[in-house]
Automatic annotation (TrEMBL):
Keywords: Cell membrane, Membrane, Transmembrane, Transmembrane helix. Coiled coil: none annotated. This is PLD nuclease N-terminal domain-containing protein. The chain crosses the membrane at residues 31-50. It is a multi-pass membrane protein. It is found in: Cell membrane. It comes from Alteraurantiacibacter palmitatis. InterPro entries: CLS_N.
């Protein structure tokens, strides 16, 4: 069981790193980070589906 907790922690840390290095606004970064810290597993799943993508901003 401990290995599953460690995997969950690593996934949450990966998601937090990606949020902080994304091109999202500061408010969005704070919101995602708080969500990932408070609910790491659920937060990771939601982030994987709907989180900010990449570090590039495309402007037209």
């Amino acid at each position: 069981m401990e290995i599953l907790g460690l995997i969950g922690l690593l996934l949450a840390l990966y998601a937090i790193y990606n949020v902080l290095t994304s091109g999202a606004s500061t408010g969005a970064k704070i919101g995602w980070t708080i969500g990932l810290v408070l609910l790491p597993i659920l937060g990771f799943i939601v982030w994987a589906i709907a989180g900010p993508r990449g570090g590039k901003r495309v402007t037209a």
